[in-house]
Fold each of these.
Amino acid sequence: MISRALGPEFGGSIGIMFFLANVCGSALYVLGLVEALVDSFGIPPGQEAGTGVHVLPQTYWYELLYGTVLLALCLLVCLVGASIYAKATFLIFLIVAVVLGTILISFFATRPIGVPIRLPYFNGSEIDNGSFTGFSLATLRDHLGGGYSVDYTTGQMMSFSSVFAVMFNGCTGIMAGSNMSGDLKRPSYSIPRGTISAVLFTYLVYNLLAFLMCATCNRTLLQKDYGLFRGIRIPPLVTVGIYAATLSAAMSNLIGASRILYALARDDLFGRALSLAKKTSASGNPVMAVILSWLVVQLVLFSGKLNTIAGVVTTFFLLVYATVNLACLALEWASAPNFRPTFRYFTWHTCLLGIAGCCVMMFLISPVSASASLGFLLVLLLALHYLSPSSTWGYISQALIFHQVRKYLLMLDVRKDHVKFWRPQMLLMVQNPRGSARLIDFVNDLKKSGLYVLGHVELQDLDALPSDPLQPQQDSWLSLVDKLNVKAFVSLTLAPSVRHGVRQLLFTSGLGGMRPNTLVLGFYDDTAPQDSLASPGGPAPAGAEEEEEEGTVNFPANTTQVSDEYVCAANKLVLEQSPAPAVRFLYLPRPPADTSIYPLYLHQLELLTRGLGPTVLVHGVSAVTSTPL
């Protein structure tokens, strides 16, 4: 969806970040389930042999083994397909709902009790005592202020940002529905309703549980026993609920990562690097993407502890959410006609607030991880921009440019033009583009940041043709502009004569205050045109520049009164006064009204410019060129 909204560069780079976020999220939930298993069935620290149900060793490699087995179970469910996953998650939802109801009831039914806490301490363990006080205003008041302590699983000092990083991972399932949009019957109906209802339900449950725990459990119990529900509630149900919730979250992130990887491979954004992930089963399940995602999750499991990777996972998800907000903000600012959000409270202010919130929390949690993630995202973006194949999805940058150009064109008032800021707006008439490449490049140097239009007149009658012959030529002309690396527009027209065609182009080229004010014609001679594209280089040919002749200024047609000797003398004078300039500017006499003396007019122009090198003949009719400064 981001690729279709912002273009393949943003979509591919954010897709990789989202894939990594889901992969790390799956590993995080697996490690959380391992910690829950070890807390329930692990051999206490300092003991060599377990007793009763406490039979699981708690070394690093054993915990890695437990995580590998649990991840293999998730892999089997995801390989079967989305249908069995949906059924499994619905069953898990029912179990979690029953357990949640039991926990809420037990807050009111359980009497105040003391809870012994066994903490790991070097090679042994120490015992601390927490307490369940029941509903107490004093207990609630003790929790109103901050009191961060050392995390007993990692030995690191906690802070607001680190606690937020751990807590935020319980809210990252908001994108689970969109990850499976290809497997839903009615994604446009199911995703918004399911997502909003899930967010509201989760928000209420988390806040309710936080309030109940703060009102009934002292700070020691909350800080030193992450499995506190087992000691003060109905242990079997709570344990089953914890296992079911974490296993469901791990499967959700694993199948989400596989769907993202499959989408990236199918779009061919990374070429052959992800070609293996395209393979699917007979039912359409991307099995190879699932296996590849499982392998990456397995690598992340080597980190060992949940809180170790919680900050990285949160950073990845915050970056993805910030980009989703950026996509919505760009579409809103571009006024894209295909972007019609049905959420009635959507505004660009909420998008901007979401982007700012995500970026601020990223750097609060871990400035190093945030900077590294942004740097990695930038590298991916640049690599995709230069290496990925072109797509037909549309680019949000073009929509934004169109929106801004239209706005500023309306602000460009021709009545406020002034001679101080006058610049040439060139319309260069080109008959044979292959023979005019050097002239096109020469005029490109003259435009001085002004409008530059390449005009071409096709001498045909549209009424006598079955279709418009200019439409297929448009792409070829644009390719010429790209090859010559000139900043120019292309305007083509059909006309019965060149004079009519030039007039049409002068009237129709440009928009608002951006219209041609200078007509440029290649110098007329009998020399056969050369293919400048096949043999580039050499001096620019002579050109003749002529302003639009729609003014009221009249120049006498006196070419018949000027002798060839006079013109040759003028040519000699120019050569003597300017030995070797880069370009010469000469006045262009008005063409005679009598068409029978056109050959004489062109002949004397040839005498005037003989041996001068690059020469521009200027004939001004606009008041701009004669207004006193």
Amino acid sequence: MSPSRSILMVGEGNFSFSASVCKLRSEAGSSITATCLQRQEEALRHEGAASNIQTIRDSGGTVLFEVDCTKLGECASLQGRVFDRVVFNFPHCGRKSGVKKNRELLKNFFLSCVQVLAEDGEVHVSLCNGQGGTPADQPKREWHNSWQVAAMAAEAHLILSAVHHFDSENHQNYKCTGYRSQDKGFHVEKALLHVFTRSLPYTSAHIVEVEEIIEGEKVHYNIPAELSDYVFRRFLCSESVHPVKLVQDFLLEGLEENWPVSMTTESVSFLIVAKQLQTGCYGTDITQCYWIHLLHKDFTADTERKDPSCSDIQEALSGLSVTSDKVDRIRSKVDENVWCVSSLDIDLEAESDLHMLRPCLLPQMKKLLIKQKELNNSAELQDESAESNTSAEDKRNKDEACGDCNGVTSLLGTSGVVFRNVSVSLWALPAFHELLLRGVFPSESEPFKLLGHKLESLLAPYGVSVVTKEGGLHLMAQPMGLVGEVFTTSASDNNGHVNISISLNLDLLAVLLFSLPDWRLLWSHDQRFSKQFSVRPPLGTPFRPFCLFPEPFSFDISFWTGPTWEEKRFHAAVREASHGTVEQVKLIDTFSHPDLSQISYCYRLIYHSHTHALSHTQALQFHKQLESLLSTRLQVTIR
């Protein structure tokens, strides 16, 4: 905090802390406003209060009486003022009040102080050891027996950003009072100072309309609402210092020690044609694809991005090259602009007008390789005459250079966001950045062994192990599981050579290499996240959380459905309604009604956020929004 900022002290007793701060900052130019709940004559009864008040005033500070810290916005003397720091030392309701009353005091204080807090301001709350209920308390009390300070602050959209030991040595003249409404002090030994800052507000998910060129034709389509925050973020652009870019740079530099690497700068579309999946995507689960229908020309100009009606869907489907029977099957599985294909029977190679969001980059890599081959053929024709004039020594040097690269001319690479229609769970990413590399290796060079050793040398220090699997290698790490693969795609035209592809999940690797507590942090808009990487910290530098000890909240949801149930649509609704705060969904019960042909499902949802303030009230609001969304979109009956 800048020395010239303003400080508001609330809940003062004998004003000894405010006087101590004034002495420490007498030459710093800070503006101190000290307040107490009592009337002036009552406050002056405290030992030393008069001299402390005089010290504050002599240093240019202000002293206010009868200020209720739970109603700061109503205080006439504070109208129109904002403070860079609001301090509340050892709050207490007075007398023998229990933890519930003190929690309520904290909650009302936080809700009040944000009305006079600057946008980048801090709230400091000092509590006795154990009261806060965070892991910083040693020993930590049981949750129900603590003041739950972080959860109470979240009610005012504040996050716990730091915890320090209460600095009693620099405030030796401080004498805390008010214990059980008496002129007695609290136990400040091992007391903790909790620092709170504002959380970014939640932003609603929205459908994003995209225009792209697919196979020479301009198409319009909608990105599903639950994926809206994962597109156009430019984390991998050349000037980026985002963690996924730092991890990519690290991997490319390491691989270039053994093989030349050429990364394409050509932008590739989010959308691919279904037949490309059949010919280009190794090991991709078709049930995890986001199937997209193109917007009809008649409603591409709808800037409001309204949800398509049944007639809109029929009109869109009528433009697809599918049979009437297949249209009926698809229509029953349309959710807004996404087709759920868990049970959809589609011949991918035969369907040229079915589209999906790219689940991997292999189809685009195939196109890049075709372009590269065309360029190479053109270059060879131009170089034929020059080659005939090349000396034997130059040819020998060129051959030796290729030999130094283990027979690989170069590794061609591309990277970008890919999308997977997966269920909500701790390590299931609906979108992540894939780094894909392709090279042609001589079979006798044992390419899997070479690449396995290299990747292990780069990533083993961060907990990644290389496991040999049939047809390739798996890169594994705990607790997330698979973080990359090395595999054969197709045989090369050259005898004795093999095409090898390397696919790496940059998001999960960034979680490992920077010790992030949650992959969702990578998509945070908070500058407190991005600032930590602006100086390009070395790999292995632990991330410093700006949202400490966020509390998880568990809610159950139960509803009746018809005999068919598309769970993927339910998980999409969960992501959208919860603003991405649900980290885990678990089916805990099902029941089939014997007479009504209905099935009841009961799910348990865990709400938890490392990026935003998430209070019980906010989580409950998201849960109510989910119930409403399920009722209208999936036509379920909430129990």
Amino acid sequence: MNDDDDKSEIFGDEATKDEYYFIMTNALSHSDRDLAANGNKLTLDYKIAQFEHYWKATSSVCQWIKNNRPSALLVSEDICTHCLDIAATLVEGSTPIFSMDHGSLGSHVFNMHPSPEDMNELFFDVISHYKWKELLVLFDTHMVYRNLQPFQNKASEHNWNLQFVDVDTESWEEIVLEGNFRNILIYCGTEEVLINTLMSSIDYGLMETDYHWIIGNPDVYYNSTHIDSLLEIDAYVTSFKMTADTSVAYSTYNLESHGEWKFRQKLVFDTMFALSKAVESYSNEMKGSPHSSIGLTGNTIMPKCAEEEEGWKMPRNPLADHLMKDLQLQGLTGNVAFNEMGKRINYSISIFSGKGGSMDFQRGEWIQNRHQWEKLYNDELDAEVVHLNINSMWTAGDQVSIGSVMISPFMMEIEHDENNEFLEGNARYEGYIPDLMAEMRNVLQTEGIDFDYELNVYNGGYGDEDSNEWASVVVNGEIDVAAGPLIITDKREEVIDFTIPFGESPVQILVKHPSYVYNTRDFSFAFPLGTEVWCANLVALFLVASLLWIINRNSPLEWSNAARKEQVHPINEENFNFKNCIWFLTSSAFLQSYDVSPRSHAGRIGAAVWWLFSLIMLTSYFANLSDYMRVNKQQAFYQTARDLLRQTDIVYGCVEDGSTYAMLENSQTGDLHSMFEYMFTSIEHPYVSDVGSGVERVRESNGKYAFIADTALMLNAITDEPCNVYLIPQAIGTSRYGLAVQSGSPLRDQLSYAIRLLRERNVLEELKAKWLQPKSECDDKFIIWNNQGLYSLTIVDLKGVYYILFIGIAFSLLFFFLELMCYMLLHYPRHFSIIPSRERQPFNGRGHSVGNGRSNETNVYEQTEATTTKLKEWL
């Protein structure tokens, strides 16, 4: 080795000539061309060593640095069996020292691997995007576990459920199976351990359809056998690769075999180039300097390790300074640059996600330095991007399975077309969902994204994470997408992912239309006054009538006495007999006039008191009458949840364990939560099994049941005959519909992107108008109801009054016939006579009486007078 040369050495048991020596010498051969122009050259001193503890490792390496005077040192962590990041310890004594392993938190070594701090940020960002709340972390060394401490802390702050399992533990597969975790992050110290763990997981059935794996190690190299095994799995797999500019790095280095290199080998290659660039930069700086004749050899030698008695201070080296401030290199692992702590910066990591043959489709990118990325690519990221940039423009791969349920108008089956030909495939279905998926396919194809799908129908309800119904088949991986009126709820988002909402529906109250509520209390107009009040009023009527009759009979100033003295016509003597007193008080109570009024002061006082009494009673009656006359209209006046809470006549409910149930249950405070508590604790049987049952219960309840549900789900059922239900206009909440995919599925971003395009192009509004706002058979009736029957009184509300009218008419007719009969008996005694036989006179054949010699006319007159007198007494 030449004294004028800069030196670079490597330690480590894994650094065999077959694995690394060719890579390092190849890299140096490429770098020598630029260094030779300045009279410099990098040479390689290759050494393999193995130590058991820190003291032996550090003392040996420091002695080697002192004796061999290298310019830089590349250290593998496996040179020390029982050490944790030996490179981080050595850098406290001399610099620059490079590491190609994971490193440790807070280390000052030049770490070619992304720092543990950045890896923690990457894992947290990706898992947050997937909305995982529970996950299992597989690791293999104590160093890896320590490096994940910041990730654990953040997960704890967000109440995530984490479980760590060491894959070196015996029967770790059984521990994973018993934990029943479906989201798994694996992060190992070496690729070999990671790949062996993945293959073992396949054998144990841990990579089936209901699993989602994140492979934390970047740029893992799989041989053909591994690839064949991974292509057969049904789990979603997310993996990472360092983003490299192939047009610069690969063409420059012209290495044909780098595609089969392990990540560690690529890092070694880039280390050689980084060191050569630092030497070149320092050489250019020294040109023109008065000390340039000294040469680079003495200036770039690594400082010897400080002795304890000398006191410790951070070692410095000009190459280290140039590595931290001037280096910008595009290598096999992307952009290579370091900060003042020796941590790698300004790189980005590509994120790949999928299953089987589609697991190599790029989903997005994690950017270590947003500003540098925008400068490098001359592009501007979205404002919300800090590190994670998810790209919706990716290919779904194989045909996507869409699952739904038969519910109008979202999904309906048709067997034949207009020509009566049998339909197959997706053509068998119509409704909002088939049209939506067709539009999504069209819009994605126009964007250059291949998207094919197959519609499948499942029976049952929407389900949750504990059920076997159709929404749960997403969790289990039986279908890729659940499509339908599936409402986005926090409980469902714990186990599945939702796209952005493709639609929303108000949550409204359905009641029986007031015009079709038949009140059994037909005489509700009498309810403003209690039964005891009506009885008391009747007694008061007779008492006051008796008072006026007594006054009329005995007062010298009243009509009776005046008639007897012939001061008035004799007929006035009967003005205030008992019968006429009743009529006088009755007409006064109804504010009607009467021909005469009392003449005496006592009678007038009694009449005035009655008028005051009647006025107060009538005012009280009419003040309360409106509420009782509108008893059938109460449903129309319940506009909010609070209105329902304030009454007890109407029972209200919803679909049990449905979306509305969840909305009310999850409302922590306010009227909605009070409604849920009231239904749950106070109302007997308020729930129904489905929306159709709820609508039918409203129809049959005669106004005693109100159903709370999404309007979109009720429209088809309530817009057909019979038109006897009514939606309260004011909504008590809003439901958002989204497409559900398996947790972490890349389909979420693609479908969300398509929904966003459809919204921008107004396609969603057209679908809403077509399917969610159907032409109703009740439209004309709705107009009549709103103008006449909803708030105005109808014959249904007033039928009790009509009953009184008809009863009154019946009594009037009855007395009419009685009076007519009596009149006929008085004027036609020959045919209808009630005169006793002893008072009758015999008649001859000519119609004259026999025995007294008077004329027939005289006899008839006398008989009539007598009969009239007796009838009057009888009446």
Amino acid sequence: MVEEAGYPDSPEEHQHMAARGLFRYNKVLKFVCPATNWVCQVYFLLAARACVQFLPFSSMASSQDSHGDVEAISHGGSMKRATEPESTEAQVKRIHLDGTSEADGGETARRKRRKYALLLSYSGKGYLGMQRNPGYRTIEDDLLTAMLRADLITDEGCTCPQIFHFQRAARTDKGVSAARQVISLKLPEDVPDMVSAINKHLCSQIRVMAVRRTTKSFNCKSWCDSRTYSYMCPSFAFAPRTEIMNEDYRITPEVLQQLRTTLDLYKGTHNFHNFTARKKAQDASANRYIMDIDCGEPFERDGLEWLIIKIKGQSFMLHQIRKMIGLTMAISQGLSSVDIITRAWGKDRVDVPIAPGLGLVLEEPHYDKYNKRYGTDGIHEPLNWEEAAQKIQEFRKKYIDSSIVNTEIKEKPMLKWLATLPLHKFNISEASSGNDHLDNSNATPPRLQAAVKLGKYRDMENHDRGSDDDAEDEDEGDLDQYRVVPVNKPAEDESKKIKLLYENGTDNVLVNVENGVERENENTNKTGKVLDGEENIANKEKVYTQSSG
């Protein structure tokens, strides 16, 4: 019988001692009978079996001894632990659901979770996009905080939602709203009304519209077949240069038809590397498939005529839709020819403007393949959200559309941005020079001559720093790409930065556009020569702050 005093202090020490004993025993066997190795193997296996049978007990005994409640019984030359009382059925169920028992001190419960898909609607005004960004207010951050307060996720899950398999169907940018956004994650199944539990901790700008139980492997991003976006803007954004661009403008059937013809060019698979940031023409991910794009009929609201452009594609890159809309506006206004779209799909870098983000709305992520495979199996529900259509429409009218209309009327971001549109090159940057800052420079009215001079400063700067391929839209701000610092400025003027747009002053480009006045600048004569523009450019700091989101 093995004496209790001979036990090591811990299970680990006992395991090490047994391993050393087996190793020495094997060496002795090989030395005694080297010719019959199979005899050594038989004896060694018998010894190993005895040790393996002995190890579990010694580990348990040592572990129980460390807690001071060892109750060993001598039974037939071996040691056995005293039997423990069996757990009740309620205790077993609690341990299965929570992952803890009452003896563990009642720690945070790990509840039984299932995969769910949540349908969201939100207004992006005041938010820095959907995805969490530490230090900034985002949709995702408010949503996770609401789930934490509703006791649906833990503190660790709120900090790192990936532990609950959190995923979003689309990542919207700053100021972009969503009529239907889908997220997927694992949530506890013991919550009767999950929609109300989350919504009572959210602000009025964000609402959970519906919840669906999905398959275990469902991922709202990878299962998404396509996404539909819409862009809502005033109709004067597509007014030709011959028309007065103001809030009284109403689009004609001819202009609307030409707009739809231009939009049709985007359909199909093309290389959109010029329509995003930090993408090269050689990148395979720059190729995107546009399934459908169309412009609806104009409608009036609060004294303005509005248009909604809907675009459906497999996926979209950063700023892609806004640049597609911005280039279409430039073509409609006659600032560039329609072939700029096909040239932008080439390998060369093309100057493409980016429209304000205010009117961009995520309409819906589509799950056609998922619905076809699982939506009719009798177990899972299809992700079509038909029962929430009325609530979504009411939310959109109250929070999304009204925000777009009110912001445009009060802050006029579209009018202000349109004033910068003629300052783009709309040509291939590598082939451009300081004399062709604008493709239509010969047709530029005299009031934009000062802007052309600033464009020459920009070209001089680009000549020193390299081509546009070396600096791909690194700044997220819409106006950062228009800021110009002249080369070889005197030392005393280095603190003065020349910017491309001006406030009310002698150069009334912005004022004329906002008031809808088609007149030449007061500081130009009939020949178009700028009388004092050069002095104004050199001596005045002209600052413009954009509020388009």
